[in-house]
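For the sake of transparency, this paper describes our internal protein records without simplification. The remainder of this section carries one protein's record, kept here as part of the documentation:
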Amino acid sequence: MTSEPTIAPLILVVDDQMVIRQLLQAALLKAGFQVNCVESGEKALDYCRDIYPDLVIMDAIMDGMDGFESSRKLREHPELKHLPILMMTMLDDSKSIMRAFDAGVTDFITKPVNLDLLIFRIRYMLKAAADFDSLNESRERLAVAHRLAKLGQWEWDPVSNNVRWSEEVGRILNGEAKSGEMTLSQFFASLHPDDRAHVQNEVTHLLSEESEKGLELNHRILRKDHSVRHVQTQAVREAGVVRELSKILGTMQDVTEQKLAEEYLRQSKDRFKSLFHEFETIFNGINDALIVWSPAGQVIWANESSRAFCPLQEGETLIGKQWQDIEKMSLIETHEDPIRRCHKEGVARQLRLKTESGRIWEVRTYPLRDPEGKATRVLQLATDLTEQIRLREEAARSAHLAALGEISAGIAHEINNPTGVLLLDLAIIQQAFVDAAPILDDHFDMQGDFPFSGLPYSEMKTEVAALLEESRESTLRIKKIVEELRNFSRPGDTGHFTRIDLKIVIEKALTLVRSQLRKSTDNLQVLTPKCPCFTKGNLLRLEQVLINLLLNASQALKNRRDAITIELTPGEKYHTLTVRDEGCGIDERLLSQVTDPFFTTRREEGGTGLGLSISSRIISEHQGRLNIESVVNQGTAISLTLPICNSVE
């Protein structure tokens, strides 16, 4: 590999004597330089304006424009002010030497010229010029760097008490790129009033004998146009000088844009935090569980409602959990990871889950995409459908009951009149048979046995009365069923609501069913508070409910030792009236059906299956709740929860 050839320096020889020009040209060419020669100062100026030589050898005394004037003219040219000029002269007085240097001559050599010394002098000047150019280039680069960084230098001289600064400091202080100086007091006056005392204290400390370190300050400059610049100032003592005479050397950097950017970022961060908290408050107010998942399948954010979807221990967080953890906490089984599947397929998905506790959740997953459309996160929205499904089922059940009520009303109306006729006719027939019995008995005594309704009179004599009584009882049963059907078909007939004491409801109900209860149990307990328990309702309707519950309790007892307890518990918003028995209990599978119309487990004993259904509806009309708890062979507890009413209307 060969290196590129170097270009020999170009030397311009200016002398009005041809012999000297030729002599110098030969010596310089032999030394390896390029050489051009001109015979006057005017031609030297023209030549240098077109071709920039690396060095000029100028004769001091020439016809026309001499070497002094030529050198001065060359220095006036911007591109030639650092051109090395070697002057040849026979003048060696100090005045001529000073004149040469004033004209801009770099160095001089006396005639007659020693050619070896000339070559040495030329090489030295070219090296010095190259070093100067390199230094100047470095200074220009440093100046550009300082200008780009808005960094300038300054120094304080304790002898003159003046602060001198570079162009960039001048740009910071005055908005003009000019170097200058001012007194230290004037410098302090340029500081922002709010920062002035602090900067003065720090500078004073730097000047003290105790200070061995420099200073670094962030403060503000107040310009004459009242604009404010933020700066960072650093300073140190001049080393190696007597303390009293040591200068303070420092830098000043304009960091206004940085400060403004930092303030903008701070405000943006505050706005972002504010918006984040606002959105978080909104999201936490949503009843649905919102969860954001990372591509790795971990929770990175969740709202408060997600705790209902994923039960957590005290102090536990969802952040970092995976879908398998959610499955374990919620006791659900999906047989798949819907989060990873949504992230992988990049499409929204929906599935329905049922927890072990019986709650039903609709889970929807949506891919969150970056600007390039790639799914980077997954948003999960889980909605608890349990209450919605329950309300839908209740609405369907209510519609069913309404239709059943209309049918029941029609049936009750159609059956009620024939039932009344049957009861009236049966009473007449019974009385007729009583009146005819002596005549029939006399005929039997005189004539003996005879046919009566297809059977011997001796057999029918006792059967007829029993058959008539059985018919009457069956008809009365039909009448009772019709009456309950009529009650069931009147859901809007709540009667007049007044402020009533539930203790009175208990007393009146017990008055009506006490004899029946005494036949069923020896253990009847009534637990009521001393204070009244007021609610707003219809006394007769609530009395009807309590009577029905007490009769059901008495019929559920297995023996007289089993107890029935009536307990009234006051509350702040609701009173609770509970009827508890120690009877046979109700199978757990049947509990959801016991308030359905016509459902009964005592069909053979004459149960109609309408008692609890009517009671449940009456309690709902009173804005209350009817709750049933039962364990087979241990008993049943039915609680009526009714709102309190303290005010008298």
Q: What stands out?
A: The chain has 17 helices and 25 strands. The longest strand covers residues 228-237. The CA atoms of residues 584 and 633 lie 4 Å apart. The chain has a mean pLDDT of 81.
